[in-house]
Amino acid sequence: QQQVKQSPQSLIVQKGGISIINCAYENTAFDYFPWYQQFPGKGPALLIAIRPDVSEKKEGRFTISFNKSAKQFSLHIMDSQPGDSATYFCAARSNFGNEKLTFGTGTRLTIIP
Amino acid sequence: DTAVSQTPKYLVTQMGNDKSIKCEQNLGHDTMYWYKQDSKKFLKIMFSYNNKELIINETVPNRFSPKSPDKAHLNLHINSLELGDSAVYFCASSQPVSRTGANVLTFGAGSRLTVL
């Protein structure tokens, strides 16, 4: 059972365009939603994160939009650059219990010139 | 100075062998994890230790045995390796959520295990 559903599986965007990756969840106990970026041969690294008490968080070209009622959140990459080409994972953590992160299935993003 | 370091980076072995992967973190974090990433890039938690105590043990075959000699180290030993164990294994560490208000995982670079 996939608790965090991520789409699309792969995405190709032209340089300068907007990349959008979507995630949806069912568990209302989730209270922390990070995005991780993974380059080939490397471990995932935290990119940006949001809590459900805000609807949007922006850091540079990266923005998380959060819709609590729809139980959805998305990552927007503005002015996408070839260096953004990587695999992106959304994740969610429950607010009680063992605090483990549940990851989405990943999106392979390719930015073409 | 690497924050979370894993060794070896690559491991190729025959079915039925026993192998170990070592992990060390110099971040002073209390919690360490092992994640498995399969060929489709899916990341799944296997184990988590908080200050040497096992706190997460997902549905993992008992051929996998983690060991944490101290809070800076978490090793993974795998007995009787099977073809399906081929994957990239990531070690990670974090501070408890209650202390930082966030669960920021810092991952190592991964150990690619290939079972022939």
Question: Could you walk me through the main structural features you see in this protein, from its secondary elements to its overall organization?
Answer:
The complex is a heterodimer of chains A (about 110) and B (about 120). Chain A is mostly beta strands and about 110 residues long. Chain A has strands at about 5, 10-15, 20-25, 30-40, 45-50, 55-60, 60-65, 70-75, 85-95, 100-105, 105-110. The relative contact order of chain A is 0.34. In chain B, strands 2, 4, 5, 6, 9, 10 and 11 form a seven-stranded mixed β-sheet that branches. In chain B, strands 1-3-8-7 form a four-stranded antiparallel β-sheet, with no helix packed on it. The interface between A and B is medium-sized, with 23 and 23 residues.
Main features:
heterodimer, A: 113 residues, 6-stranded mixed beta sheet, B: 116 residues, mainly beta, 7-stranded mixed beta sheet, 4-stranded antiparallel beta sheet, 3% helix, 54% strand
